[in-house]
């Protein structure tokens, strides 16, 4: 949609009355209003047109503060309308009045104000827009703790101390015999030395020479017969 300058409305109304209704005078009073001071104020058609132009100028300045290509076209149309109003005031005799002069001045002011505001907004950094779908996360309301009824305590029984004797095993555990650290004593060895020279063979005896003592001595054990050597 193309931007439309609002001050074109009073400008078009003035041109319609000049070209289509030449008998209408802008200095003719519309009505008479008594003031508190007692003076009768009679506003004219030109005064009403200028009041309408001032109100539209306020809305035009507010609209000029918005950036965009649409409002750039609005500024260009305002430039054309203000240039045409100045040209009509200078060239056409029907527009050489104080009412149209003030109307042309307001149109030029509207164009200059819109251009200056647009340049100021162009150099201002634009904040990043926040997507509409994203909503700030609100913290969850704290949940009130549910009252818990106390659990009845179980009855306690005091234990009677008893002297417990250790149970003796039925079978005694085998105990390893203590190993003496002492080294075993050496067993003395008996050295039997036989000398063929010193030992002479026993003489042969006859059975008739034997006695009972000799028979007993022959059958006695060797341990009893042979004495143990001393270490």
In short:
The chain has 231 residues and is mainly alpha-helical. It has six helices and two strands; from the N terminus they run H-E-E-H-H-H-H-H. The longest helix has 25 residues, at 98-122.
Low-pLDDT ranges: 195-199
Distance from N terminus to C terminus (CA atoms, Å) equals 143 Å
What number is the mean pLDDT? Answer: 72
**Which of globular, elongated, flat, extended, rod-shaped describes the shape?**
rod-shaped
- Structural class of the secondary structure composition? mainly alpha
Helix and strand topology:
Layout: H1 8-19, E1 33-34, E2 40-41, H2 45-64, H3 69-91, H4 98-122, H5 212-219, H6 222-225
Would you write up a description of this structure?
It is a single chain. With 231 residues, this protein is mostly helical. The chain has a domain at 8-122. 40% of the residues lie in helices and 2% in strands. The chain has six helices and two strands; from the N terminus they run H-E-E-H-H-H-H-H. The protein has helices spanning 8-19, 45-64, 69-91, 98-122, 212-219, 222-225; strands spanning 33-34, 40-41. Strands 1-2 form a two-stranded antiparallel ribbon. Strand 1 and strand 2 form a beta hairpin. Helix 1 (8-19) runs antiparallel to helix 2 and helix 2 runs parallel beside helix 4.
């Amino acid at each position: 949609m193309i931007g439309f300058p609002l001050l074109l409305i009073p400008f078009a109304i003035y041109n319609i009355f000049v070209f289509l209704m030449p008998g209408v005078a802008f200095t003719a009073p519309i009505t008479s209003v008594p003031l508190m001071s007692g003076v009768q104020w009679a506003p004219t058609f030109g005064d009403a047109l200028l009041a309408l132009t001032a109100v539209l100028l306020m809305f035009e300045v507010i609209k000029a503060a918005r950036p965009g290509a649409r409002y750039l076209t609005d500024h260009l149309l305002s430039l054309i309308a203000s240039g045409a109003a100045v040209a009509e005031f200078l060239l056409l005799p029907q527009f050489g009045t104080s009412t149209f002069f003030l109307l042309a001045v307001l149109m030029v002011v509207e164009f200059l104000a819109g251009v200056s505001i647009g340049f100021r907004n162009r150099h201002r950094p634009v904040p990043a827009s926040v997507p509409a779908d994203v909503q700030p996360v609100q913290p969850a309301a704290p949940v009130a703790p549910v009252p818990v009824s106390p659990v009845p305590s179980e009855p306690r029984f005091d234990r009677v101390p008893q002297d417990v004797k250790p149970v003796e095993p039925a079978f005694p555990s085998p105990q390893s015999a203590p190993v003496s650290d002492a080294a075993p004593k050496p067993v003395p060895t008996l050295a039997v030395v036989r000398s063929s020279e010193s030992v002479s063979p026993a003489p042969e005896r006859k059975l008739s020479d034997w006695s009972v003592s000799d028979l007993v001595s022959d059958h006695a054990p060797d341990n009893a017969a042979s004495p143990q050597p001393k270490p």
